[in-house]
Amino acid sequence: GAVVSQHPSRVICKSGTSVKIECRSLDFQATTMFWYRQFPKQSLMLMATSNEGSKATYEQGVEKDKFLINHASLTLSTLTVTSAHPEDSSFYICSARVRGLGEAFFGQGTRLTVV
Amino acid sequence: AQSVTQPDIHITVSEGASLELRCNYSYGATPYLFWYVQSPGQGLQLLLKYFSGDTLVQGIKGFEAEFKRSQSSFNLRKPSVHWSDAAEYFCAVGVDSSYKLIFGSGTRLLVRP
After folding, report:
1. Terminal Cα-to-Cα distance of chain B (whole angstroms)
2. Do A46 and B49 touch (CB under 8 A)?
3. Of A8, B42, B65, B79, whose CA is between 20 and 30 Å from A25?
4. Do A102 and B99 touch (CB under 8 A)?
């Protein structure tokens, strides 16, 4: 199956700094990428949908100025958590979809801890 | 609004026993339905999916699921559970052609030796 690589797998940052998480489709071109957030022992909540070359569509309640999403190419999307605070600590997971293929493939996730 | 309900937070079964994980959805149109499995600290792996056609869907690792429109359900089953099946299982519905997914709250499966 298709492989989605997410980097880094774990990151610890200081409060007030920014963190960038990368999501790459390794062997296919992803027309659409999704970013999810998962709190401990909870489900995945969709944060935003990004299509290559266009602005991301954010879900209600997600601060677009805090969670910057860039989908500059068909194989790379990035999520930047700006001015991170401890409440941003979470597990972030991306997924990538190929047009015409009936599923999206998930990355392995990034554990963000803000101290 | 679209939603997915997994009524069982935890399920414990003995190794070799059968398994059924429940999933109910709320969606106005014909749904795209998925089951994913997540090991601790990992991403999600697709077990199976339903788009149309035969309502009994076969997936990987010996799992199957049955779509029942009348009950708005898509329950996951396995005839004989292995210890390696212990994980978190998520049911999801795709709400539009982009395959944006709405996830259920998950069911944690524990397997007794």
Report:
1. 41
2. no
3. B65
4. yes
